[in-house]
Design goal:
The complex is a heteropentamer, with 1 copy of chain A (about 450 residues), 1 copy of chain B (about 300 residues), 1 copy of chain C (about 290 residues) and 2 copies of chain D (about 350 residues). Chain A is an alpha/beta fold. Chain A has 17 helices and 13 strands. In chain A, about 40% of the residues lie in helices and about 15% in strands. In chain A, strands 6, 7, 8, 9, 10, 11 and 13 form a 7-stranded mixed sheet that branches. Chain A has a 5-stranded mixed sheet with strand order 3-2-4-12-5, sandwiched between helices. The longest helix of chain A has 17 residues. Chain D is globular. In chain D, helix 2 crosses helix 3. Chain D is α+β, with helices and mostly antiparallel strands and about 350 residues long. Chain D is built from 8 helices and 20 strands. The chains are: A alpha/beta (about 450), B mainly alpha (about 300), C mainly alpha (about 290), D alpha+beta (about 350). Chains B and C meet through helix 1, helix 3, helix 4, helix 5 and helix 7 of B and helix 1, helix 4, helix 5, helix 6 and helix 8 of C. Bound molecules: adenosine-5'-triphosphate (ATP) (2 copies) and magnesium ion (2 copies). One adenosine-5'-triphosphate sits at the interface of chains E and D.
Amino acid sequence: VQFEEDPYEVDCDEYPNHVSCLDNNGGGAIDGAPGIINVLDALPNEPVTITFWHVYGESKGALLQEFIDEFEADYPNVTVEAVSQGDYTTIRNNTLNAITAGNTPTMVVGYPDHVAGYLKGNAVIPLDDFIYDENYGVDLDDFIESYLAENKQYAGGYMYSFPYSKSTEMMVYNKDKFDAAGITVPTDRVITWADLDIWADTMVDPNYTVGSNDADSCQYLINFDSSSNFFINSVRQWSGGYTNSDGDILVDNQNTIDMLNYVKTRFADNTFSLPLAWNESYGSNNFIAGDVCMSVGSTAGINYNIPPGGEFEVGVVPVPQYDLDSKSAVQQGPNVAIMSNTTDAERLASWLLITYLTKAENTAAWAMETGYLPVRHSGVQSADYQAFLEIDSPTDSLYYSSLAAQAAYAQYEYFEYDPAFAGAVTSSDARFQAGVAMEALFGGYSAQEVIDDMVRQLGA
Amino acid sequence: MLERQNNLKALFYLAPAMVLLSVFTFYPLFNAFFLAFLRDYEFLLRSAKGFTLFGNFKNVITDPDFGIAMKNTSIITFISVPISVIIALLISVALNSVKKLQGAFQTIFFLPYVTNAIAIGMAFAFIFHADYGLLNTILGWFGINPINWVGLNASWSNAMFALLVYTIWGGLAFKIMVFLSGLQSIDKQYYDAARVDATPRRRVLTKITIPLLSPMIFYITVTSFIGAFKAYRTIIGMFGETLRPPGTLSKDSLITIVGLVYDALAHADATGKMSEAAAASIILFSITMIFTLVQMQISKRRVHF
Amino acid sequence: MQNTIRETRIRTILFKVLVYTFLVGFAIFVLIPFYWMVLTSLKSFQQVRTEVPPSLIIGLKDIRFLENYASAWNAAPYYQYMLRTVAVAAISTTGTIFTTIFAAFAFARLNFKGRDFLFLALISTMMIPGEMFVITNYITVSNLGWYSPLGQTQTEAFLALTMPFMTSVFYLFFLRQAFKQIPDELYLAAKVDGTSDWKYLWKIMVPIASPTIITIVILNAMGTWSAYIWPKLVATEYPLVTNGLREAYQDFFGMVNYSQQMAAALIVTLPLLIVFMFLKKYIMRGVSRSGIKG
Amino acid sequence: MDITLKEITKIFQAKDKSETVAVNDFNITIPSGKLIGLLGPSGCGKSTTLYMIAGLLTPNHGRIYFGDEDVTDMAPEDRGIGLVFQNYALYPHMTVRQNIMFPLENIKVPKEEALKRAQDMADLVGIGELMNRKPKQLSGGQQQRVAIARALVKKPRVLLLDEPLSNLDARLRLATREEIKRIQRETGITTIFVTHDQEEAMSISDEIILMDLGIKQQVGEPQDVYDEPKNLFVAKFLGTPPINLMPGEIKNKQVLIRGSKVTGKAAKNQEVVVGIRPEGFEIDPNGIMELEVYMVETIGRDTTLIIKNFNDSAKSYRIIVDARHRIKPGDKVKFNIESDKIFVFNRETGERL
Amino acid sequence: MDITLKEITKIFQAKDKSETVAVNDFNITIPSGKLIGLLGPSGCGKSTTLYMIAGLLTPNHGRIYFGDEDVTDMAPEDRGIGLVFQNYALYPHMTVRQNIMFPLENIKVPKEEALKRAQDMADLVGIGELMNRKPKQLSGGQQQRVAIARALVKKPRVLLLDEPLSNLDARLRLATREEIKRIQRETGITTIFVTHDQEEAMSISDEIILMDLGIKQQVGEPQDVYDEPKNLFVAKFLGTPPINLMPGEIKNKQVLIRGSKVTGKAAKNQEVVVGIRPEGFEIDPNGIMELEVYMVETIGRDTTLIIKNFNDSAKSYRIIVDARHRIKPGDKVKFNIESDKIFVFNRETGERL
Ligand SMILES: Nc1ncnc2c1ncn2[C@@H]1O[C@H](COP(=O)(O)OP(=O)(O)OP(=O)(O)O)[C@@H](O)[C@H]1O
Ligand SMILES: Nc1ncnc2c1ncn2[C@@H]1O[C@H](COP(=O)(O)OP(=O)(O)OP(=O)(O)O)[C@@H](O)[C@H]1O
Ligand SMILES: [Mg+2]
Ligand SMILES: [Mg+2]
């Protein structure tokens, strides 16, 4: 352990890219290369090995490996060792440990708050020099704006991470039931909570027995897979405030209380529900079983909501909104960062890999296979992806992925991301508590109790 | 044992374990202790601003969850350990006394040790399910209404009950194995003598078996208490990251002291959080230590070597 | 008098019934999760997902044995992982056995300065949550050059996986208790027979404490078999079976194919069960202590 | 209550299937209230017999009766037995007091009384001061005394003693055995006493049983057995120093040793073994047997003459004479032989003629 | 190599701090190559003494020498000792063969030779057939013989035997002790032999040591000790049946019992204890002492007259007479007393006068 008078007084000559040496201009944009990182003119000829920690399991991992193999074919002297760390908590812990041990991988996948944490250890590099490099740079305009904004919210406004695997939420509904109930779910406009209230009147059957799969009714009208997203989205729509990137918790206000009270009534009359209603983590089983008529979940999880035997038809639409004036859809999914404990060659190789992975056709291919969304406009526009978006045959294996993607794009105007902050309380904690709050509300606690507990836990 | 001291020889025998322990146990331990007294420790940079005697401890103790953690830890410890030790003891003794099917039973009782954690989680979810769970079904036979054990908004005490069952279940296999191996080293002659002396079975158990097994009982008790003070995985296994029944707030949490440690460790990148983890560990350590010392003191009289 | 015999017999039978009932009762209690595991591994993905409540038995024709087990087996290179795990378990168990035998011997039989204090100090290390060690050990292992995310050799991986587990206070304590149960007389006899402590340890203590040592072997091997966090941390490229098992079925949407996962878990568990069944008879075959009066 | 063993056989089977016949077709009735000495060489099956009576071992064959009751299948705890184990089997974790009180507590004797009885019994065997010690802290003999006290304290129906005095010194031994005898007499407990000390066996037993190789050899009152051994084994086994055995022959109803007649015997001519008790020799200048004294030993009150090279250089004979006779090594002494101290045995079967 | 114990004291301290002085300021030199019998009542410190010589216990005070070498701090395994434990201490997991061979393996005797020596030794003690058994499968006596074989097989520098024959029958005991004596003679191993059997101690020991309460009482050749006991304890301890003790007094250099003179003694007038060996009485119609015979016991070759109500109704005296005297209970018999069988002791200190 070294002792320093003030660890925040970092020697900025030595660590020009340390978080403490950067001005915090509030997530504002940086234009041009800051000149922090030395970008090599060309990859050296010696072999370069980079390690890439990710979180993808067997199938996504295999797909990633295919890209890597292609990449390695293009750059024969670069070897990429891609290693799955399991889940997000593990990758974060392992990376933190690796940083402390001074023994990091070359690049990692992670959420913004992970990267914000790594930044405290001076462990990631800003990518701006690469982004604006003549040889290796990318055209930022080609990237989905909110993805960029999310990755620019670090101190100094530098991009310490780069968008990689992105997803959002969509809603599925049981078309057959709606048909039977004589309701048509509009596809030309965003569904509102008011719609839901009306439909609930006809479709929610208080005496519904679980598993009975009545033709035209359900136990609950709508399920929200992620209680965190439910809270965050709703609080935004109600202008309740969530957090800011300084880590301030902004939920303790009347708007939030109102929102929660509203939701509470909808819980009470079985309009809204959470997977908890069935002791599950996701509502897909009960959606398939017909217990719930609609379900909000991640676009990447669409296939779990499709009845395997095609028992009923599934419709996919954007997430319902409370207030059409302040619409909000979560944008989530990990980004990728390059660690600082690396050589220039490794950095460049990593950057090349990042750009390779996010290349239009690759980001599109990745998106189609995994249920994520392309990070580039050009990816979205690519012929393959456009073809994918136009799939309209329910027999096509990508049909529902396509529907989900369409729903996603319908809402990408109002994508919102979580402000990232690290520290004693992280943005992940806030998100976690948001979920807890929603669940407790569902469990019967009052709006005030729920908020109080959230505030208390987040130590605001 | 010879009365004469032989420090050199002891050193020889202790050296391999000690070298390894020094590197992989003592050193990390001192390291952890040390962290608890650093002010504003930055884990990632491994630097601190100076020392503080109680600062980190104060942070831990003033944590709103600390009291809850203390309560939960004590309850888990003082209920699950005695019960599981007694059950394991009875099972081992019973197992040791039967001939038929002994091997089969032994294998069965070992199974928890090799059973996949996810399967265990699923099975317990089924056991405690409010609607169709095994436990409520059985209770139903006795005319008892279904109880919400671990479901939505289950009460703290129900959840704790389920957790205790789960904890006890999880600890049986190991204890049974230890007791069985201990029972093997009891001279059968004592049982002959006891039979001739017309000793009722219960007295054979309490007056012969238990005292002669006391070294292993002591071992199991000490290590189980230590283990139970460190309870955490079981709670994660049962309730997931929230450490409580779904739909409840933090006052219903089943968090333990180690839960606090984990919580702090999960924020290793935050200033001073590692120190808090260390401080919480030391608090846990102190409680456990006092308790272990008491046990050792009692055992001096009770444990027959 | 004849009555006494009958009474005794009835009592004995009653007692036996009691004992067996007790054992069977707890056996069922203990078996439920395992049964669940087997059951799930035989069900179809469909059945597991949609059945409410889950069925407790499964019809012969519903069994998806081949399907689940075959794809489970293919989900990860288990064979290779198992081999590696066996090697790691063998090394660390051997190490643990040796170091704990030595140290337990010192604590149980030798008389040296500060023995009780040292022992207490050792026990006290168990009172700190393991994760407090993990980080420092990770740094240590890194500093020793056994781990780097970049290019770790097989040897380095083995060192990192085994060295921190070459001894165990937990088992040391266990073995010391077992050693203490061996009558002093034998030690004295061996001494006058001109036996060195070393030889006494191996020829007398170890054979007599063999049930305990076998138990330690089983438990320790089991520990390696289910090790997850540490291998994940220091041998990212050399996963052990549990890493394989977990990662093959890791999914962010909770939609794990439980049937296959359980099938895989059973496949992975099986070797261990076989080893256990083979070794357990040594646990039950204690050494009867006769030839010592008193 | 008498104890009857009917055709009892006990075979130990080792793991490798090799068998040891420890007790072989044993038949005996032990009369109620008697103290029976069980004697025999080491490994002849004495402990095994006791254990079967106690119920700790089950005979492979045969039945055991207490009175009329067949107890073969009765559990040991129901038999009302007191047993002193050859290796004590004290409970190591209990103090002397607890050890002795243990059987009393089992039969729910009130605490107070149990304490008193235990103390009395301990005083009797001279360990009254050691009540708070653990067995480990006792000397061998002290441990043995605890075992005796433990067996006696509950006044069992049947008392089985497996070499209970082997580690006691002569005086204590005498005192203890007399106490045992007294208690046995007073309470009328049927008692079986295994001992290697003949003098002990003979002095306290109402009857003795001689065993060899798991087979009963002779039963009877001690002096009778000594005086009238049924076979060579019995003759050899009883008596210290042991009987002197010499090859001889019967010719015309005369028993000859090295050609000279030592006594008469109405039996057909044959080769025999002649046994003469060491005290059966009488120094007589006109004696019929002249022997050269090889060594003279005086131990305590006895003077023993040792004879060597009589007919077999490896063998030596012992003759006990009155200490008054001043005999030196090398003396040639003539002896007469008392006719009731001389026994003649078939050389093949060992049966007495 | 002779063994010297210098001011050896051993105190056991129990957990509750109570102390037992097991051996108290013990001084002795055991001459090289001799066989010494160590005798004393149960619990007097015999085993403790042996253990200290073996190095298994450390004296609280004093030094032990083998020859000139101070071995007090030497480890037991380096002392080259053979020890038969009173409680055998066989290795339960080893067969008889392995048990016996164990000490040989320790000194790296080649396998072949070790096997042979073990077999020879086992044959010697009569367990040659049982080599593959585990101790559990042996009778008490057989276990004891394994222990003896194990101690003897390595031909130790010093042999310590703690009641090694207590569980053997008389014949085997005689044979074994003679084997031990022979081996001891042949190899010149300095040997200490603890036994409760006086006859045994006296017949094989070159010298005997008598202990009581941790204190050495008398040392000497067996017969000398028997003939000239230094104090009351020694006189009482040696001899079976034990010496008859009567209160008496010295008056004018005459020793009087109940007023009549039994012998003379040049000592000042005082109250004394008079001891007369059972064999010290001679039937003589003109004897100086008339006693009424209470009971007559014939055990084996001896006839014992039991006298009661002589002066203390609780006490009985034993007189051994030649079997020829036909005496019946109730007879009044007159005796003379052999002067070398009568000893006079100070009534307070027990010292012989
Ligand atoms: N570990 C111990 N703790 C306390 N006292 C002990 C211990 N060992 C022996 N003693 C006591 O020391 C005394 C001497 O014991 P020791 O074993 O030497 O007797 P011994 O002469 O061998 O007797 P025995 O003939 O009965 O075997 C006894 O009174 C005994 O109770
Ligand atoms: N568990 C056993 N397995 C095999 N053989 C045994 C077992 N127990 C005893 N024996 C054998 O049975 C025979 C009789 O043993 P037992 O113990 O009855 O002898 P004993 O007459 O008591 O001898 P001792 O006087 O030496 O104690 C012996 O030869 C012994 O070796
Ligand atoms: Mg026996
Ligand atoms: Mg002794």
